[in-house]
Amino acid sequence: MQSGVVRVVARNCPHCGSGAHAVMEQYSRLGWTTVQCNGCQFIFLNSAPVYEALSEDLAWSQQFQKEKKRRQKQQPLVHWLDTKTRWRLHIARGNEWDYISDKLSGGRVLDIGCGPKNGVPERFTPYGIEIEKAAAETAAGLMRARGGDVIHAPALEDLARFEGGFFDGIIMRSYLEHEVSPREVLAAAFVKLRPGGVIYAKVPNFATVNRMARGADWCGFRFPDHVNYFTIRSLRAMAEDLGYRFELRNTLTRYTNDNLHAFLMKPSVT
User: Fold this and answer.
1) How far lies 85's CA from each of 23, 79, 213, in Å?
2) Which secondary-structure segment (H or E) carries 125?
3) Is 193 exposed, middle or buried (0-12, 13-18, 19+ CB in 10 A)?
């Protein structure tokens, strides 16, 4: 349970700011409550761990392994089938790290939530932001060797360190679902992108048929570090409200893929 284990912050809707929402009991677990905004229909946790907890005690690598073990124990047959058929995830799928190359030929790229590995394609100068302390320390050496850097800090705090228009591209791969203030981060990123710059974003797809079929056992749920649940509609709305041009990359699998892959592009003239 969350009470007594970790400090939390209460949340209004991270898209429209409304405090009015409906509880989604079927998608709540372990003391964490999933809600849907009464106004814009955005789906999110109405409380989230403080930054310090996500940095170490609730680090992504630890939470991932805990959830994996929980599902293996609760649904051993489903877990076995998933393990034996992982090849299905690679059908008609390219290298996610190269997706940003669809829109950019080079330049400075910021990987928010970069993790411990340097996955940014070689044609780019890589920068990173990582909330998990150990992962940030590992990634820093790799990116500095290529002329970039990694900062261990919340995204909003780190973005403020860069001048406007500094980045050609930004990677938000499996990041926005963890971010307590996704709208504010996207707004700050808009300023830090050069005109014509682009964000590649990957988030769990709440509107997938797999979530509808699996319900609370859907693979996209992970408590408490997934605090936002996007659909194409909600991700597009948030991006376009901030001035981005939205382009869905996986249009053919938009209902069957457990993830959304999208480009958020800053107009060349703003």
Assistant:
1) 34, 10, 18
2) strand 124-129
3) buried
Q: What span, in angstroms and rounded, lies between the C-alpha atoms of 222 and 174?
A: 12
Give pairs for 16-19: CB < 8 Å, separation 24+: 16/40, 16/42
What is d(CA 147, CA 158) in angstroms, rounded to the nearest whole number? Answer: 17
The number of C-alpha atoms within 13 Å of 166 and in the hemisphere containing its C-beta is 16
Length of the chain: 270
Write out pLDDT tens, residues 87-146.
445 544 457 888 999 999 999 999 998 989 878 999 999 999 988 888 899 999 999 999
Tell which residue, 37, 30, 8, has the closest CA to residue 230: 37
CA dihedral 68, 171, 135, 49 (to 10 degrees): -60
Tell the residue number behind the tokens 């964000």, with chain if given: 199
Helix (H) or strand (E) holding 185: helix 182-192
H or E segment and range at residue 239: helix 232-241
Domains of the chain, first to last: 8-80+95-265 (3.40.50.150)
CA end-to-end span of the chain? 46
With b for 16 or more beta-carbon neighbours within 10 A and e for fewer, the 129-166 pattern comes to: bbbbeebbebbbebbeeeebbbbbbbbbebbeebeeeb
Query: d(Cα 227, Cα 176) in Å, to the nearest integer?
Result: 9
Q: What is the pTM of this model?
A: 0.85
In the sheet that holds 149-151, the strands lie side by side as 149-151, 124-129, 107-112, 167-173, 193-204, 259-265, 245-248
Does residue 3 surpass a pLDDT of 50?
no
Mean pLDDT (whole number) for 210-226:
92
Contact 199, 174 (CB under 8 A): no
